[in-house]
């Protein structure tokens, strides 16, 4: 049994909504946490204890086919301890039931931690999760004077899950409720204080098992979700796309052409469009709509739409012609907007995905191609925004960030470069197909030259 504690109101995170409902990588944080719990082989049932004022925002999850182990969503109390006791009141009467309490805003808990917590309950009545402290911990008094510096080697930073035999945690809270001075910040603290003879075993956590509490944590969590896609290149086999219909805009050369080639090798029915081969201008709403309409008429479905077309012009802004500035913005940003908008209705029917492309220059504007890098930064924001907008429709959208790839566009802009410093377009295409076959959404997946074809 797992209890996900989602009673927080998110004051510190400062986004105006309960922190567990903040969306990262296209899903609310609590959904990410729920996915991990639901996938665990050691968890049979899940209860969510939700902030009573926002409980209606989670009711749809209870009938969601993604979470068959989720049986109840109940209102929490004013404090964490109140929420725990609300869950205890809802559980069965078997004192030997194994129950895990986990923060909804720790979405990076892994299978190993869950397994070890449950296994430890075969030998202990209470289990905590913690990691060593990398910082020196000091103790201060009311005047902010240091009064003690504990030995760091014996200190740990507490995390969740915390696991208990049901009878033990109930007994600890029964004693706590008789104490008018009772105060604890977590459930192991209740056992430690009121059942001092009960040993509490500690399972090793991970630094990634962070709690999203402060505004900066949201940004860190977003990056950690991107890092989770590292296995796409090395650990995941090329997908079988037999029966899938893939549309590639900008498929005549470079990365787009490689995507077409690799997708066909994977068994997909691939349709490619470009200005040079089909006369399709990706900046034209009418041309894009007509292309998708033709594919749907011929194939009856569209499962993925890839937009790889782009243009890179070098030169100082003050010396760049206005028509070239406009063309760059239209091709590199407006076109992805046009393609994404037109693709949505087809992908909604298949639960499909849009795949866009950005550049490593999106993180910082580069001299002499500022319009390009600014447009690519806009594509990143577009990806993340649409992932949230389209989550309820089941339409996914991701963005590939290939660093220094050997394409005609790059060669034209930068000239010949050492081959070993560049990605091969096929490497990028292979990662792209793995992303298309994944459940990811809202991700900016970087394919790095240094570790090609790894993904971060």
TrEMBL record:
Role noted for this protein: Catalyzes the formation of 4-diphosphocytidyl-2-C-methyl-D-erythritol from CTP and 2-C-methyl-D-erythritol 4-phosphate (MEP).
Signal peptide (from-to): none
Residues marked Positions MEP for the nucleophilic attack (site): 152, 211
Site (Transition state stabilizer): 12, 19
Molecular function (Gene Ontology), one example: 2-C-methyl-D-erythritol 4-phosphate cytidylyltransferase activity
Top-level taxon: Bacteria
HAMAP family in the record: IspD
Annotated InterPro entries: CDP-ribitol_syn, IspD, IspD/TarI, IspD/TarI_cytidylyltransf_bact, NAD(P)-bd_dom_sf, Nucleotide-diphossugar_trans, Sc_DH/Rdtase_CS, SDR_fam
Species whose genome carries this gene: Microbacterium esteraromaticum
Protein name: 2-C-methyl-D-erythritol 4-phosphate cytidylyltransferase
Family: Belongs to the short-chain dehydrogenases/reductases (SDR) family. Belongs to the IspD/TarI cytidylyltransferase family. IspD subfamily.
EC code: 2.7.7.60
């Amino acid at each position: 049994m797992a209890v996900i504690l989602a009673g927080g109101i998110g004051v510190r995170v400062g986004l105006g909504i309960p922190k567990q409902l903040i969306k990262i990588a296209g899903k609310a944080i609590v959904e990410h946490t729920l996915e991990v719990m639901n996938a665990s082989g050691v968890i049979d049932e899940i209860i969510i204890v939700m902030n009573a004022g926002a409980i209606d925002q989670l009711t749809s999850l209870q009938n969601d086919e993604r979470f068959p182990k989720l049986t109840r969503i109940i209102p929490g109390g004013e404090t964490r301890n109140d929420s725990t006791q609300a869950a205890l009141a809802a559980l069965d009467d078997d004192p030997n039931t194994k129950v895990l309490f986990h923060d909804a805003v720790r979405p990076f808990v892994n299978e190993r931690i869950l397994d070890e917590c449950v296994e430890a309950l075969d030998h202990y009545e209470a289990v905590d999760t913690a990691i060593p402290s990398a910082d020196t911990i000091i103790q201060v008094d009311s005047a902010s004077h240091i009064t003690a510096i504990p030995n760091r080697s014996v200190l740990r930073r507490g995390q969740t899950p915390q696991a208990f035999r049901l009878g033990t945690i109930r007994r600890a809270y029964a004693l706590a409720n008789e104490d008018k001075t009772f105060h604890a910040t977590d459930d192991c603290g209740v056992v430690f204080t009121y059942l001092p003879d009960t040993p509490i075993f500690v399972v090793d956590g991970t630094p990634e098992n962070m709690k999203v509490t402060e505004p900066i944590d949201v940004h860190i969590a977003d990056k950690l979700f991107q890092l989770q896609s590292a296995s796409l290149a090395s650990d995941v086999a090329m997908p079988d796309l037999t029966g899938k219909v893939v549309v590639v805009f900008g498929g005549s050369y470079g990365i787009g052409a490689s995507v077409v080639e690799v997708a066909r090798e994977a068994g997909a029915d691939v349709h490619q469009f470009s200005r040079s081969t089909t006369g399709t201008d990706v900046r034209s709403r009418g041309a894009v709509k007509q292309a998708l309409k033709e594919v749907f008429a011929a194939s009856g479905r569209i499962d993925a739409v890839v937009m790889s077309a782009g243009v890179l012009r070098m030169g100082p802004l003050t010396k760049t012609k206005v028509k070239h500035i406009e063309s760059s913005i239209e091709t590199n940003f407006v076109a992805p907007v046009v393609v994404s908008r037109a693709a949505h209705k087809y992908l909604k029917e298949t639960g499909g995905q849009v795949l866009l492309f950005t550049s490593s220059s999106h993180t910082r504007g580069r001299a002499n191609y500022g319009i390009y890098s600014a447009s690519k930064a806009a594509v990143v924001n577009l990806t993340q925004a649409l992932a949230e907008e389209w989550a309820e429709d089941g339409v996914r959208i991701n963005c590939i960030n290939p660093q220094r790839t050997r394409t005609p566009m790059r060669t034209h802009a930068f000239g010949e470069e050492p081959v070993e410093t560049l990605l091969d377009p096929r490497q990028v295409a292979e990662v792209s197909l793995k992303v298309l076959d994944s459940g990811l959404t809202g991700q900016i997946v970087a394919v790095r030259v240094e570790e090609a074809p790894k993904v971060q």
